[in-house]
Amino acid sequence: AQTVTQSQPEMSVQEAETVTLSCTYDTSESDYYLFWYKQPPSRQMILVIRQEAYKQQNATENRFSVNFQKAAKSFSLKISDSQLGDAAMYFCAYNTQGAQKLVFGQGTRLTINP
Amino acid sequence: DAGVTQSPTHLIKTRGQQVTLRCSPKSGHDTVSWYQQALGQGPQFIFQYYEEEERQRGNFPDRFSGHQFPNYSSELNVNALLLGDSALYLCASSLGGGPTYEQYFGPGTRLTVT
After folding, report:
1. Widest pairwise Cα distance in chain A
2. Partners of residue A97 in chain B, C-beta under 8 Å
């Protein structure tokens, strides 16, 4: 069974600084997709960034970028120039071509200090 | 363009009772997935509905059942409620259900079982 592990229950960073959230996953599949979702106190899960496993280039969305290491099964999220609005729970998630479900990690609570 | 909506926002039930949660997908989406998120945990996949049929199911007992209507909206029913069913129930919609499509999440229904 596929599993997703986030080893950092909590992280904090000063506003305007850079922070990296870690995620590892376990799978025997070769074709899959990885996601980072943000869940603010409003509870609504918002997609931050997506990476297709067949793409070697790391995905980037404005201040958010990933470091995808397929051999190491690692998928970290880097947030540059952290803003107060980035404070939230961040979940790493996995999906395969043949499955319809997202498999989530346990989340990392990110605090931004002004 | 309305996003995913869920009702009710909060619900309190007594152990042994039955509950129905409702979800309307994002306009244009035809697939609805349900997730259970216990406090401090990542969401767990319950099941997915497409073309009014359950397409995939997670590791949840038969007490959890669902339905999808011709307008693509969906219901999640839980019978014989247990204290452990207390959680945030998230609905996500997508087009076609494939992993290349982003799953849009609703704000969730907070269920408390006493």
Report:
1. 44
2. 98-99
For A49-76, what is each residue's pLDDT tens digit? 999 998 889 999 999 999 999 999 999 9
- Among B58, B92, B107, select the one facing A43 at the smallest CB separation: B107
B60 in reach of chain A (CB within 8 A) = no
DSSP-assigned letters across all residues of A39-99: E-TT---EEEEEEETT--SPPEETTEEEEEETTTTEEEEEE-S--GGG-EEEEEEEEETT-
B59 reaches A (C-beta below 8 A): no
Averaged pLDDT for residues B21-50: 95
- Asked if A102 and B44 come within 8 Å (Cβ–Cβ), the reply is no
Q: How far is CA B89 from CA B8, B10, B13, in A?
A: 11, 10, 14
Burial of residue A22 (CB within 10 Å: 0-12, 13-18, 19+) is: middle
Burial zone of B75 (CB within 10 Å; 0-12 exposed, 13-18 middle, 19+ buried): middle
Hey, are the CB atoms on B56 and A105 less than 8 Å from each other? Answer: no
Residues of chain A with pLDDT under 70: 97-99
Calpha distance A76→A21 (Å, rounded): 5
- Cross-chain residue pair A100–B100, CB shorter than 8 Å: no
- Binning chain B into helix, strand and coil, the percentages to the nearest 5 are 5, 50, 45
